[in-house]
């Protein structure tokens, strides 16, 4: 589907991805994976086509040469990502949208580890949600929907009554599989890669409007 020009969506809660959705970490992710690919002689472009939105260990399991310990290598890669903060910023509109949401109506579902997620939120000045689902909290990473299903249920809502905000194919597939209304942010994907999705440029396209029935009313302007 094309860029959303205007829509008004009612929901019970908003579920955010983190990297690329609330916090733009694209430069760090790409820098880290290119260095890792060079170390092992792996095709960096192949990694970058699929790594966004996935747990680090799943990318390593797919691309690491034989004999590499995925768990140990994951610790190394994530350690480097934790130390590399140059270029990390909040996605435009993130602070205003989160500030407008009631604390019990939003959550974050991320493929990052908990320490990394907390560090990145603190780095860009975003608040910690009451519910933060991280890589350690799910049996399988995105595109498995379990993270979004769990977040919705911990908030007390049906996943089908939530909006999922995502930026990567693994993430928006997870949102669809959970039954949520998915809106994709074009923070690093080209419009042609989003042809099958409802998408906006960034979070400045979203705002809250008052509603008298207890639901959230999200205005989307592309």
From TrEMBL:
Superkingdom of the organism of origin: Bacteria
Molecular-function GO terms, alphabetical: sugar-phosphatase activity
Protein name: Haloacid dehalogenase
